[in-house]
């Protein structure tokens, strides 16, 4: 079970070292295979993120990286874990397809007994954001809306469908993150007009991010109560979070951003761990 100490809740995260990280194909507008990638630098940025989580009191488990799967570092896409149940991922692209079974295998070996091989395309926590009483899920670029219903039935938690419209923000976790008190931070222009009305109705106290905040993947953040772990470049968002009483911990993820991922993409939350 998650433990609370002061304003902090201990979380358990799954991460995958970027041992085989590369940009060899382009499945989102951030990826340009002609741009050089410095793998050592990616590993350094990733290690600092992992060490920061541990320094903040969280648990981090690691899945072994697989050669030939350069995007496997983005563990958020490996599944969705709620109340110890694991809804597996089914990737939209052929390049990432083998990651789905690889992550499910890790969960089974780690002792999770309720696992589901999905029928519908979904890229795990990349397109699902879990709040206290419901989950938000995106469609538009990767995850199919039918997967939202599949997840809702399997996890027993209501899922609200949102439509993403800007290809730079192709996963929900690039455009929105959860804040305490059942609210969120998001970039309005990433969503369709209808979805924006849903967000406005559900979250009157939401924090709205600027284009710069979003374009530096500032919304690809992890909030664990008071603490927020986020991209160093998203200064406006950081300032507004501080004014709301948050402690902001900045990380540099620009090497991994060449593949379109930031801090949250590298992080899959295990809610909670099996005993
Ligand atoms: N290159 C990866 C892809 O396009 C990046 C995934 C980022 N992950 C995330 N949760 N947003 O699939």
Automatic annotation (TrEMBL):
<dbReference type="GO" id="GO:0016990">
    <property type="term" value="F:arginine deiminase activity"/>
</dbReference>
<protein>
    <submittedName>
        <fullName>Amidinotransferase</fullName>
    </submittedName>
</protein>
<dbReference type="GO" id="GO:0019546">
    <property type="term" value="P:L-arginine deiminase pathway"/>
</dbReference>
